[in-house]
Amino acid sequence: MKIRLFFAILTTTLTAGVAASQTTATKAFNTAPHEVIKLIDAMTRLDMIDYYNAGSNTASTIIYDEGGSITDLTDSKITFTLSDKVTQSLYVLPAKGDTIIASVKTYRLPAVDSSIEFYDSQWNPIEISRVIDLPVIDLWLQKPTKESREAFNRVVPFVPMEITINPETGTLTVTNDLAALLPREAMAELTDIVRPSVNYTWDSAKGKFKLAKQ
After folding, report:
1. Higher-scoring residue by pLDDT: 62, 167
2. In whole angstroms, what is the distance from residue 127 CA to residue 209 CA?
3. How far apart are CA 98 and CA 30, in angstroms?
4. pLDDT digits over 153-175, tens only?
5. Assuming Cys at both sites, which of 25, 95, 103, 146 could form a disulfide with 78, CB separation 3.0 to 4.6 Å?
6. How sure is the predictor about 22, in pLDDT bands with cuts at 50, 70 and 90?
7. Which residues in 67-78 are b (16+ Cβ under 10 Å) and which e?
8. What are the DSSP calls for 8-77, one per residue?
């Protein structure tokens, strides 16, 4: 127990020592500061990895007595639950001279909506606009016109968006969940107007997601 506790403290306090070339999703999960993973302490993170590697479905108790468990783990991606309605994923993205880590939290309440943050390998925050230009109204519209913008603005108060990243293919997809937000009649107005998703590709040389051909 003392050895595991020492290791847990060590991994969380030496984040600056994680070299970009050695960053994996597991290491990112273990070294992420409290500001990035607020509900899971260092010891619990180690337990969650042990359970996942052992093929166990055991959930670890996190803050507020919610059960947390890892649902997906590769060298470049880790996804874990924070509650029955909230998941968080860390993605490791290669970039020139460093590694960029994306943190995506997804809420299902019931519309699916995600938030995204970016960090360098030493967990210094990176301004979102430096890495991606998230969709605005004209990107959601199949053919941006005065009429389509007016129709969109008439029925859409905001766009709930699910963000997913595939580090292996270097793609990021933003999928709208307007169907869970709007009444059926409103969605009928948008069927031929709004794209279901917007796609991006990762440019490792620039450390940025570029808009893909839609």
Report:
1. 167
2. 13
3. 19
4. 999 999 999 999 999 999 999 99
5. 25
6. confident
7. ebbbeebeebbb
8. HHHHHH-GGG--GGG--HHHHHHH--TTTS-S--HHHHHHHHHHHHTT--PPEE-GGG-EE-EEEE-SSE
Cβ burial, residue 214 (10 Å; 0-12/13-18/19+) = exposed
**Under 8 Å between Cβ of 43 and 49:** no
CA angle 26, 41, 93 (to 5 degrees): 30
Using CA atoms, how far apart are residues 198 and 175, in angstroms rounded to an integer? 7
Whats the size of the chain, residue-wise? Answer: 214
3-state secondary structure (DSSP) of residue 165: strand
- 3-class SS of residue 5: helix
DSSP state of 85: S
Residue with tokens 């990112």: 28
